Protein 1
Amino acid sequence: MNTTHIILQGLEPIHQRYQQLLQEIADIASAGNVVKLNDSAARFEQVSLDTDAWVSIQELCFKAELDVTALDKKLSLSDFKLLAMDMDSTLITIECIDEIADMQGLKPQVAEITEAAMRGELEFQESLTRRVALLKGLDALALQRVYDERLQLSLGADKMLKALQQAGLKTLLVSGGFTFFTDRMKSRLQLDYTHSNLLEIDHGKLTGKVSGIIVDADEKQRTVERICAELGVTGKQAIVMGDGANDLKMMSVSGLSVAFRAKPVVRAKADVAFNFVGLDGILNLF
């Protein structure tokens, strides 16, 4: 492994509670220096890691419910110009379509399809078409109820967005979810760009169909590339966050990919995986 430092962070103060673990990690990594970033984060510098040592550290941290990231260089926010995010279960805590389905009494059936798609076991377009079809006849007012009653930002989302926006990054919300929600997120969080699926509504009822291009994995990647081109930057100047298999293609063109509360297939391929800390954990990497 070509690693210069690792960053450890948790939801609670780590420097007192995990003192023994911190020392154990420093020994395994042959760390030349340990820097306290804040009460909940530390950076181990000048580390020497082989694959076995890195696996051991990951296992120790996961057991302690701490997130650990290995980086081959120190990152600067000035290296990045765009933050691209998935919405459902990434920027927000829910899968909107599952909660809409709950209004129909169909949440278990829809959630099962959602999970299969997120794990990569089912092609996204097929999964979306099947799930939306189950919503046929539902009063469109259910969308507002989901937004008002169930939609919450993920832990640390607000802090992360404010910091990255203040640093000058443009923001893109690209989602296999629906414009009803991404439009409201754009206004609420002052995002620069959004792209998602349009639910077809007729006489106040959902028709069970989506209008236009389905935002699947390929469309997500194309969107990130298109926005980068508009900004005159490369994909390597983008940070991309997601949690499901349909996020992998857009994550693959980024300079920094972040898996948040993600499926194993996504965690394995991302540069950074946050299983415990909030989205603002990314700030400790810079």
Note: The chain has two domains: 5-74, 78-285.
Protein 2
Amino acid sequence: MSHTAHIRSHRKPRNRSASTIAMRAGVAGGVLSLAAAGASASAYADEPVTQTLELPTLTADMATQVAQSADATQQAAANYQLQAERDTAAANAAKQAKADLADAKQKAEARKKAAEDARKAAAARASRSAERTTLSTTASTGTSTSTSTSTATGSAAAVISFVKAQIGKSYVLGATGPSAYDCSGLVQAAFKQVGISLPRVSQSQSTAGTQVSLSNLQPGDILYWGSAGSAYHVAVYVGDGMFVGAQNPSTGIVEKPLSYDPPTGAVRVL
């Protein structure tokens, strides 16, 4: 046994105040709380965290701005459409104006040509009228400005001899002889005697040779009625102001003076 075992301690017992005990208890409690919080956080560390965002509230001002923006966009689209329609209308108007101008020019040219044709036709009628007057006067006085039959020689004499030999035969439309002829059939057959091949119809025969004036006819010239290229009747001039032709079914092939039926023109193939 220690030599101090039975000796009482002379140290005074500590006098712990209530506040000190309370403070220690509080500290201990706080440590426990932190520990518990840590454990809790550890337990939920693997769970996903959901974050909620609040969208801004659409206020009256914002709604007005959106509406105004939509109106502006719609108005701009309407403007673009209107401009496009105007551009299309302008292009169509320009195209139509160009077509109208071309049509007007064409009509003006047609009127000009018609006026020129009318002037030429009037001049031709006046010329034919003057020539017919001359022919009528010559026939009535018995004077001829042309070569007479008696002086015709060669091919002209052969043609005249042939057509005079046909006088009294019948006129039959489309006939080419030998017992009947129509007007162009007789002329074609007459010139065939001298080796000249003429077209079959009067329209073509009226342009078969050189055009000559009715005041300068020679025996053997081809007379035609109507215009050159569209004549409706032909005959052969035989001199002394006379012609032989297949006139019509009533008269047949006859010899007549130019005044009987003044021709329009004449061509020379000999």
Note: The first helix runs from residue 18 to 43.
Protein 3
Amino acid sequence: MKITGYLSEFSLGEIFRFLEQGQKTGCLSIKPIEAENAFRLPPQKCYIFFRVGQIVAASRELDHQGLQQLIEQRGFLHVTTIQRILKLYPLTQPLGLALKTQGALDSQQLQLLFKYQVLTPIPELFSLAEGWFKFDAHHPLPLAEMTGLSAPPRDVALAGLRLLQDWTPLMDKLPLPDSTMISLSEGQPPCRLNPLEWRVWEYVDKTVTLEGIAQALNLPTLEVQKICFRLMMAGLVEEIVNIPTETATKTPPAPSPPTSEVSFSVSQSFLKGVLSFLKTKAQPTV
């Protein structure tokens, strides 16, 4: 099964939720479609690997060298040492677990490697003005890129967006200040929120606008918009846009059509004659 499309049609958050809820296994490829900027490096393509709806690895290339290079960059092991171990013990499980089994890495190091591997590309991917994506369910999982750890896509999206520094590309995607938020899950949120996100979450499902939340929490409105955007991308809330009801302008009633009645001008002498006649008819005869 292959699914392709553009990020202008489906947001990265929607794609993550689809793969998580469908418990998909395979490779999600994301290729930026963006003009190169002379002041910064062009965005890079990214490959995110899923197993039963959980993210298990991410890489910039498909050469199966990314995790080894990351291990060396973090100062844990040299690539030559890793390759020497792999010659002695052929890879039949995720590389991270294999190195842990040999005592070359510990659990804490694996956690750090996994977080750095999967969280680093997330801010950039969510900031893409346009991109093309493809999910290939037949792509084999790359054991050489896997630490052996996994995480729900919504947790990765939420944690990755917390690292975003430049929100300029996302300004037109933020929820509106006069919108309200409703929860998409019953009870408590299914993922871990930080203290500030919790304070905003307390106003979900209430008729309080984002601007009202900002005033109640003494926060800038833009900060509340960013927090709500993160919750939206994690599939926790949905924006309800409040459309202002315009006061209907009262149009004056249309003038009544002219009646067919004819007005007569009656003289005073004629009225006196009629009254005297009626009085005479009203007197009893002798």
Note: Residues 174-240 form one domain.
Protein 4
Amino acid sequence: MKRIVVLTGAGISAESGLQTFRGSDGLWEGYAIEDVATPEAWQRNPVLVQRFYNERRRSVLEAQPNAAHLALAKLQEAFDVQIITQNIDDLHERAGSRHVLHLHGLITRSQSSKFPWLTYPLEGTEIRMGELCENGSQLRPHVVFFGEPVPMLEPAAEICATADYFAVIGTTLLVYPAASLVDYVPAGVPRYVIDPQIPDVRDHSFIRIQEPATTGVLKMIDDLFNG
């Protein structure tokens, strides 16, 4: 079975009603990134950071997978679909995708603030101050803050190196280190990029589908079977 590696970004979740992390005004849901999504923000005001991500988690749990998520899950009937997502929501999993690697963490889990390898499934929508990991440190969202290492980058690169097909959906390919994953895809592998605003991809061999994910993924699938 041929393997297609799919790198997804905020654009695919935006069609389920979830805000992209940074709007045109530089804010995320009305908050400055520096105030809610950095290690310094956590040290300075953990209550605010916790509240911010509790709000985001509620939004994620209210959202539903859209046609793009569902189409990628159905594609597993014919391909070994490996999804690498920059998104912290669980919409791919809820759509039925079996192999999902979260580069930036998963908001429906918590992690120790001192021992980041300790992560836990989260019941409900909130992590409360005073909730501790097994080693006694405060639990925080299981997300990679800006400025923190991306521990899943190396496994993601290894997956990209095994691709028979590669697709980029709903991401600008301008945010590093995630954008560097393109460099690990073997030469000659067919590559797709799907977005209403096609990013200035360095590799001009990309097949460009300038549409939202919900319609663009269906066109890519048609091309995979009939192209």
Note: The chain has two domains: 1-18+65-104+149-227, 19-62+110-143.
